[in-house]
Amino acid sequence: MIEIRDCDNYEAAKELILEYSKIKGAEACFVSLNKELADLEGFYKDGALLLGYDGNKPVATAAIKRTEANKAEAKRLYIKPEYRGLGYARPMINALIEKCRELNIKQARFTTKPEVMSVGYALYKKMGFEELKNDAGTVEMRIPID
Questions:
Q1: Which of 132, 130, 134 is nearest to 143 (CA)?
Q2: Which of 23, 25, 52, 138 falls between 20 and 30 A from 115, CA-CA?
Q3: How many structural domains compose the chain?
């Protein structure tokens, strides 16, 4: 069972995001990585950074970057490879959506690369994310939040 909480360990979050950034084919998702990692707390100040724990080990991350008063970009959904297939992604996405509700965010957008992250892409679609556009294999999706 995964326990999800607001980030309480920025070094662990940084390690997870760096690990995620090294996935072959996902490089385009990390255009402002140095700025982000230099100040994770500040970068997600008006949004949220979540960590998922298996026992006391941080194994997953997800983030919300506010883009407008009631809109945000959902980012950095990542689960360590050895913890995939355990049903952790859905609770991480649900926690992200719930955090959006708490922050009065009415719409969240994700950008993903189905060719690289096919399992995540399929889950986003199953959970109600709508595909907005596909630009050379990079797909922008959104979900309205009630």
A1: 130
A2: 52
A3: 1
Domain that holds residue 41: 3-104
- H or E element: which one contains 70? none
Q: What is the CA radius of gyration of the chain?
A: 14
Question: pLDDT at position 22, please?
Answer: 83
134 in any annotated domain? no
Dihedral sign (CA 88, 89, 94, 97):
positive
Q: What is the CATH number of the domain that holds 48?
A: 3.40.630.30
pLDDT higher at 120 or 24: 120
CA-CA distances (angstroms) from residue 26 to 30, 111, 113, 114?
8, 11, 7, 10
